[in-house]
Specification:
By secondary structure, the protein is mainly alpha-helical. It has seven helices and two strands. Its main location: nucleus.
């Protein structure tokens, strides 16, 4: 039996609507989908089969005898509506799954690749190497003070210490002179005028 007759017999026997893929599957794939589709197109052209389009889906059914009752036609329409609803629901599920897959793909593409991670690790390793080298250089070569700088530091230290001692002596001489006619003690006088001595703040003048 050729595909044309097999498709016609199947639709007539089942007396319900199918799409081309379902027909090929229900015929146990004895005929290719392309052959089944061509047979359906030929049957439609000959007026033996009717076709209805729902979105991108085409549904085929055997052309009914006009002598059928209104109830029979109504039942067939209900079957077509049921098929349409089923296909619509399946389409919605597929679209939802497609959106989910697209989102997952987008998320995966936004993640750094293995190559990017290797490159980043390599950059970090290089930076660590540079820092370790600098640390080694610093630890092996501590800061050295030249003889000139050392001499200058000592000279400045002695100069400022001498000036400190000189000014302290002048200040204390003035305090002693004032205390000769001051009715209170030295401590009270220093507190009154707001003078802090080295001893009061715990500082010892270098010798």
């Amino acid at each position: 039996m050729d595909a044309f007759q097999a498709v016609l017999n199947y639709l007539g026997h089942q007396n319900r609507p199918y799409n081309a893929i379902d027909i090929a599957t229900n015929l146990h794939n004895e005929y290719g989908k392309t052959v089944v589709q061509k047979s359906l197109d030929k049957l439609v052209d000959q007026g033996k089969v009717i076709v209805k389009t729902y979105g991108k889906q085409k549904i085929y059914g055997i052309k009914q005898d006009s002598s059928k009752s209104f109830q029979d036609v109504s039942n067939e329409l209900k079957e077509l509506d049921a098929v349409d609803l089923k296909l619509t629901n399946e389409l919605q599920v597929c679209e939802k799954e497609l959106k989910s897959c697209q989102k997952n793909l987008k998320d995966l593409l936004s993640e750094p690749t293995t190559e990017d991670l290797h490159r980043h690790i390599s950059d970090i390793d290089s930076l660590i190497g540079v820092l370790n080298m600098k640390w080694t250089q610093i630890s092996e070569n501590p800061l050295q003070v030249s003889a000139e700088d050392k001499e200058r530091i000592i000279t400045d230290y002695n100069k400022h210490t001498k000036e400190w001692r000189k000014r302290k002596a002048i200040c204390m001489s003035m305090v002693e002179a004032i205390l000769e006619n001051y009715p209170k003690t030295k401590t009270e006088f220093l507190e009154e005028v707001g003078i802090e001595t080295d001893e009061s703040v715990g500082v010892t003048l270098p010798k």
